[in-house]
C-alpha cells in the first residue's frame, strides 16, 4: 500500500463554509463530549508552537492555523458518527474537510482517530487505556475490503503531497485485501500504517507515557493520569474561544511557573513534550516521503538533542528561554520546507485519547449522565 499518511498537511485554498455530504451515518449527531475532545486536541495542535509545524504563532508551508481549526470542526461529526464503520468515517470526514478548506490539512489525523472512535463506542466503562486499546485491536481485526475501498477513496480525495506508489495494494488501484492487511504492507515505512498493524501501541504507550512525564522527578508528587495532565488544556481552549479577553488575562501559559514540572505542565508543554518524543523516536514519515531518508534521520537526531536541551533548560532557565532554540529550529525547518506532519498527527491522536479516558479525578469526555 502506498503510504497512507501521504504527506498530509499540504497547502491549498482558504477556508470556505462547510458542505454536507450524502452519508446518512455522517448526519447522525456525534456525542458532543467526544466531539469536544477531538476539537480540543486539534486546537492544541496549532495552539502549540512545534518546530516545523503550522501554529497560531508561526504559519508555514502555505497554510494557516485557521484552516486546521476549520478542518477539525468540519470533519468532527462525520469522523465521530455513531455506528459508522471506519472506512465510511474516513471518506465522509475527508469530503467535508475538502469542501471547507479546499486542501489536505488532516488526513493523518483522520486515519488515526477513525478506528479509535469506533473502538470508543465499544470499549467497556470505566474507560482505561488498556480497555480502549483492547477494543481498538478488535476493531482493527475486523476491518474489511469495504473499509479499504472507502479509505482508498478518502486518500485519493485528500490528494496528499508526496503520495507515491507501492508494489502491493497501491492506493491508486482497487484494494484486494482488508484495510488492516493493506496497512501492514506499509507499516515498515509509515508510522500511521504501523498503528493499524500494531494496535496503536505508539499512541497508548509512547504518547501517553510522554504526557505522564509531566511531574516526573518532582519529590512527593505522583505522576498524574494522562487525562488529568491535559484537563487544563480543554479549559484554556474553551476560555479562549468563549471569552478571549478573560483568557488572555489569566491563562496557564502566562501564570508563573514555580517549578520545572509546573513549567512543563502548561498547554504548550503538554503537547510539545509528546510531539518531541515522537519526532525524536523515529524518522517522521512525512519528512521521509518528501525529503528522503537522510534528511528524515537528520531531523530525528536534531529532535533528540533539542528535546534534551528543552527539558534541561526548563529546569535551569524557565520556559521562555527553553523555547528560544526551538523557535530558531522552527524557522530553519520551514525555510527548508520540512514539516514533521506525522509526528503532529500522532500527537493529536494521543491528546484525543488522553482527553477521553476515564481516570481517577478526571471528568472525562466519556462519562455518561445518569439515566433519568
TrEMBL record:
In this chain, the stretch annotated as Disordered covers 1-29
Q: Which InterPro entries match?
A: CitG (IPR002736)
Any one GO MF term held by the record is: triphosphoribosyl-dephospho-CoA synthase activity
Protein name per UniProt: Uncharacterized protein
User: Which one Pfam family would you cite for this protein?
Assistant: CitG
Q: Which residues cross the membrane?
A: none
Please list the residue ranges that the record marks as compositionally biased, kind Basic and acidic residues: 18-29
